[in-house]
Amino acid sequence: MGNNNSILYNSDYYRAILLMGILLAILAIVFNIWLIPKYGLDGAAIASFSAFFIYNTVKLIYVKLKFNIGPFTSETFKVLALLLLIAALFYPLQFPFHPILNIVLKSILMTAMYIGVLYRFKISEDVFGVISKFLGKK
Known about the structure:
- This protein is an all-alpha fold.
- 80% of the residues lie in helices and 0% in strands.
- Helix 5 packs across helix 6.
- The protein is flat.
């Protein structure tokens, strides 16, 4: 998402960043005035997050509309689904070891399964290329 600024700054739409920055400032002030009295420091965190989330979403939509460039592909959603599936499979799994060893073993197994599935089914061309290069295959 950080490339949206670069895309906009280096195009004819660089003025839009100024307007979006003003929107960010206004949102931050309004959200802080609204949320800090109710929630204190947590309200400040929520206000900041909300303002930046809206700001970045507006930039993302603007770049998509003007340049037809998006950060997500079908591969992105396949990888996300794979991550959620692996997390769901390994969450209930508990080994009768020390908690640190349990975490290490589950992490190794999850990583091996994730990389194995990505490589076997070529879900991500980038990951497939890196693993192939690492394994010395073309």
